[in-house]
Write a structure and sequence with these properties.
The complex is a heterodimer. By secondary structure, chain A is mainly alpha-helical. Chain A is 72% helix and 4% strand. The two termini of chain B are 28 Å apart.
Chain lengths: 529, 511
């Protein structure tokens, strides 16, 4: 059996233990963290490469689709399957496809860059770096798990380190923010658990028989993923009347994570109070778990419900985009502005999903990836300006262009990328979301309503370009004194991310190709009434 | 000699790479200027080759292609896959519509870099931005894939924003922001149009979409096509600019540095006109025909409004800015005339006049802004009333000023006349005696220019200017080139007009 996926879990977990054991000093802790995180990044890149070209097949094994015992094939790769608690139907199953691989690539990448960015963390560094690496472990686990129980375990393990990261190393209001974050996402999770149990009790036995040949209840997600391709057989076991409430509960849980207006209110506080590395992981990865879940479970396992409820996705997506962009206009704190803009950008994911066509779904999934890159830079920018000037208030940091040219350059690129300027990564995702939505399968006469989310682009441009204008080119604020530009490790993090944003903007194919392929399978599922 | 290499990709890559080169080697301002100017000569040479490729007698040959079996032909066509799953490709090519504009872009960029010689502040960034801008503008003209088209359309805003915001006049920040927001918001209806085209056509390739439109199988005619036409007219018309979407222009033009105004007025505005013809006219033919009244009204109002407002202007640069609004109205009017008159000689002249007006106005307004910038720099004021009788102390400057003013008011023998005459002939063919309305505005145009000349150049010398330096070399050389081109294309317009009119005939369905 292949081993690369387990390796992607073992390495960060070993890193976590290694830092706790060996990280007595700040220097030791951060170097151990960096070594394990870089190794993890290399492995994740290898996985990405394996999905593009066959060069690594001798090492990783051939990339062949998983075939169930009854001969049904699924586009899941590098599947590892070990029994865990057989009487309860829990197994240790991992598998990846075009949806998860870009996100798995993103995880240790952002983890490594946040470690590099936080190179000078001197308050309780051992625990800090250990928790960052633990997050790499748990987030990767969420993206790979193909057993519902395993998925749930990883999902919760994500919450705990983030709770501590915010609560211990965060800003002035960190206790409130960390508790709010934990309670919100935990409640969302508990509601999701209801759906998981519903799937376990109602459908899993029948599907297990269909896919694996054994009529026992199971938490195995692959029976649902593979079974969904069986068409009417699937609807017999999991009819629409069951799928809809199950989808709704999952949608609630993923909606809290994504986040979706009106379940988003944990996010501004959590993001603003988190330390920079925490915000980068939170915005860059945790939010993507919500999107991942929507596609993996909502679309992949409950396609009839997803098809029926497309308009719910469209409405919530549009509302998120509208509400968040207008709220951003009122923000003066740079970090809070970026936090709310994340809410708006995640609206695109819902809008793309609601289209029910391959292009729109692919755009929505790709938005997860591109937004992850861009928001990481944005939060790092907020962190830099705070430690250089002591404030994040936009009216106070005007005219820093001349004194901080490198910072200004990164700011310009990141802001324009977030606006969705063509030539930078997220234009592709936003463009395809809109193109797909206009082609929406069930959109009918409502497709003209695309003008509503389209206009939010103008509002987004307004708040970003206005802020950029003031910060880079405004009247210099004398009260700030002399400012120093980026330091060495900030430069590394920014260079990698800006480079990727530009590269993915010009050559999206390496990431988009596998996403588009995966979106095709989803479109095939939801396309049939 | 057959040009078999990817000339258009080179045209796009050289200025962009050149911008990076200028930034890297240009720590010393003079090195930056020379490197920038020198690099800009390469796309200029390439664009001349491109232009000659359309004239078989020149000896330069560009392969004529009809991609996807299209009716209309394109040259220097390149097609490479980009994101094949989504039918987004790298498709570039030129035809008789775009090639004069590509040449104009390369020419004006070189001239603008020459004019910028006296800029002392952050020279390497300044020159690099102009080269980057050149890539994005040429990109719009040569893109034959809508994704690529939109990419260049949007990205062209960024260098221009910085050119105005960093090197501009007293209200530069306000003007730059206004420019960016207006044109950015205006691109949203363009995006909507692209989605609609993809929905009905299944592709982003503009050649295919034009072919589908010509056979009536793109956007269904009637309400849908009319709505899309209006949306795209609003989006492209903001750039042209047409009244009432023109209000960003006076501030942007006045506050931009001289070289910036040269590019802004000389070529950036033509993006709007080009797009109206490439997209609205070619891809929404029924919409163009049915909405002729809107296009005609906007055109006439722009011509009239711009001219009347010019009469009230004291600032020379602001006068030229509003005259641009007026002159660009001819483009819209020409399109309307072609829409009504159709594939008749009148209609062909209307559309051909609109296209030639873009070329003509590009040359003339570039000259006008160089003059305005030079006057302002040397005299410290651009107020026309402040000047007086400078002909005696500034013979070179005054000559060029007079030539440019006369070209702008449409003196026969200079390039502006040909374009305006063609549009008027088309308008008469389409609308009969209503052509008298735009013709009479020629009186206003003549009025404000002659007043300005009289006030500034002739008459008794205002003693304040008795020591005014004449125009400097870096302004004279570009003006000499431009003035020569006014005369050449004014006396021998058929050099370009023949191929333009042939193209219009084919597009309108006459050939």
């Amino acid at each position: 059996m292949s081993f690369i996926l387990s390796l992607l879990l073992i390495v960060p977990f070993a890193g976590f233990l290694g830092i706790l054991i060996g990280g007595a000093t700040q220097a030791r802790a951060k170097w151990i963290a960096l070594i394990f995180s870089v190794t993890d990044t290399v492995l994740a890149t290898a996985l990405l490469v394996a999905f593009l070209v066959p060069w690594l097949d001798p090492v990783l094994g051939a990339r062949i689709p998983y075939v169930s015992p009854t001969g049904m094939a699924a586009p899941l790769f590098y599947v590892e399957q070990y029994p865990w608690v057989p009487p309860l139907g829990m197994s240790y199953i991992l598998g990846v496809d075009g949806l998860s691989v870009p996100l798995i690539f993103l995880t240790p990448l952002l983890g490594t860059l946040s470690i590099v960015f936080s190179w000078d963390k001197d308050y309780r560094p051992r625990q800090f770096y250990a928790l960052l690496v633990l997050m790499e472990f748990s987030i990767t686990g969420v993206f790979m798990a193909l057993d519902f129980f395993l998925f749930a375990v990883f999902w919760e393990i994500v919450l705990i380190p983030m709770f501590f990261l915010i609560g211990i190393w965060g800003g002035t209001n960190r206790q409130y923010a960390s508790f709010k974050f934990f309670v919100y996402t935990h409640v969302g999770f508990v509601i999701m658990l209801l759906s998981i149990f519903a799937m376990y009790w109602t459908g899993s036995a029948g599907l297990n028989a269909l896919v694996n040949g054994t009529l026992t209840r199971t938490f195995d997600m692959s029976v649902f993923l593979i079974g969904a391709t069986a068409g009417s057989d699937y609807l017999r076991i999991l009819p629409l009347a069951t799928q809809v409430p199950v989808f709704a509960a999952f949608f609630f849980g993923f909606g809290v994570k994504l986040p979706m207006v009106p379940l988003h209110t944990w996010l501004p506080d959590a993001h603003v109070e988190a330390p920079t590395a925490g915000s980068v992981i939170l915005a860059g990865l945790l939010l993507k778990m919500g999107g991942y879940g929507l596609f993996r479970i909502g679309f992949g396992m409950l396609p009839a419900a997803a098809r029926d409820l497309w308009w719910v996705l469209a409405v919530f997506g549009t509302v998120s985009m509208l509400y968040a962009s207008f709220v951003c206009l009122a923000q003066t704190d740079l970090k809070r502005l970026v936090a709310y803009s994340s809410v708006g950008h995640m609206g695109f994911v819902l809008l793309g999903a609601s289209s029910l066509v391959q292009l729109g779904i692919a755009g929505g999934i790709y938005q997860l990836f591109t937004h992850g890159l861009i928001t990481a830079v944005l939060f790092m920018l907020a962190g830099t300006i705070k430690h250089v000037t002591g404030t994040r208030e936009i009216p106070a940091i005007t005219g820093i262009g001349p004194q901080m040219p490198q910072y200004s350059f990164v700011l310009i690129v990141a802001f324009l990328a977030s606006v969705g300027l063509p030539g930078l990564a997220s234009f592709w995702s936003e463009f395809f979301v809109f193109t797909g939505f206009y082609q929406g399968l069930l959109a009918g006469p409502w497709r003209a309503l695309i003008v509503v989310p389209l206009l939010t682009i103008a509002v987004t441009a307004a708040y970003y370009v206005w802020s950029l204008h003031k910060v880079v080119m405004g009247e210099p604020n004398r009260a700030l004194g002399t400012l120093h530009d980026l330091n060495e490790h900030e430069k590394i993090s920014y260079t990698v991310l800006v480079g990727l944003i530009i590269l993915a903007g010009l050559f999206p194919l390496p990431f988009f190709g596998m996403i588009y392929e995966y979106a095709g399978t989803l479109a095939g599922l939801v396309g049939v009434p | 000699m057959l040009l078999d290499f990817p000339i258009l990709t080179l045209l796009l890559v050289v200025p962009a790479v050149g911008a990076a080169v200028v930034h890297l080697v240009g720590r010393n301002a003079n090195v930056a200027r020379l490197a920038g100017l020198g690099i800009s000569l390469i796309p200029l040479a390439l664009s001349v080759l491109l232009l000659l490729g359309f004239f078989p007698s020149s000896g330069i040959e560009l392969r004529e292609e009809r991609p996807f079996g299209s009716d209309l032909s394109y040259r220097a066509y390149e097609l490479a896959p980009w994101l094949p799953q989504t039918s987004v490709s790298y498709a570039v090519g030129v035809d008789e519509l775009s090639v004069p504009l590509v040449f104009l872009t390369a020419l004006l960029t070189t001239l603008a870099l020459a004019v910028n010689w006296e800029e002392k502040h952050r020279v390497r960034a300044f020159y690099a931005l102009f080269l980057l801008l050149e890539t994005t503008i040429i990109g719009v003209f040569v893109a034959l894939d809508f994704f690529l088209f939109f990419l260049f359309w949007e990205v062209s805003l960024v260098p221009m924003y910085f050119i105005i915001a960093v090197w501009g006049g007293p209200r530069k920040r306000y003007a730059a922001l206004k420019f960016f927001f207006y044109t950015f918001v205006a691109s949203i209806p363009v995006l909507l149009g692209i989605f609609v085209f993809f929905f009905y056509g299944g592709t982003f390739n503009m050649v295919q979409l034009i072919e589908l439109a010509r056979s009536g199988s793109l956007v269904p005619s009637g309400a849908i096509q009319n709505l899309v036409f209006i949306a795209l007219l609003a989006g492209f018309g903001t750039k042209l600019p047409t009244w009432p979407l023109h209000t960003w222009l006076p501030d942007a033009h006045v506050e931009a540095p001289t070289g910036g105004s040269v590019i802004l007025a000389g070529i950036l505005l033509k993006l709007g006109g080009y797009a109206i013809i490439r997209v609205n006219v070619e891809m929404l033919p029924q919409g163009t025909r049915e909405m002729y009244w809107l296009t005609a009204a906007l055109g006439v109002i722009s011509i009239l409004y711009g001219a009347v407002v010019c009469l009230a202007q004291q600032d020379l640069k602001r006068l030229v800015a509003f005259s641009s609004v007026s002159h660009m109205g001819f483009v819209t009017l020409g399109v309307a005339a072609a829409a009504v008159a159709g594939p008749t000689p009148g209609g062909i002249l209307g559309l051909g006049g609109a296209i030639f007006q873009m070329f003509a106005h590009g040359l003339v307004s570039a000259a006008l802004f160089i003059i305005a910038g030079s006057m302002g720099h040397r005299a410290g004021t651009r107020n026309i009333s402040d000047f007086g009788g400078i002909a005696s102390v500034n013979p070179k400057g005054s000559t060029f000023m007079m030539a440019a003013f006369l070209a702008s008011l449409g003196l026969p023998g200079l390039v502006g006349f040909v374009a305006e005459l063609a549009v008027f002939l088309g308008t008469y063919a389409a609308f009969g005696l209503l052509v008298l309305v735009p013709i009479l505005t020629v009186i206003f145009t003549a009025a404000y220019y002659i007043w300005a000349m009289q006030r500034a150049i002739f008459g008794p010398l205002n003693p304040r200017w008795k020591d005014l330096h004449d125009m400097e070399r870096h302004d004279v050389a570009p003006l000499a080139v431009l003035t020569a081109l006014f005369a050449v294309f004014g006396i021998l317009p058929f050099l370009l007009m023949n191929m333009t009119l042939e193209w219009c005939a084919r597009v309108l369905g006459a050939a």
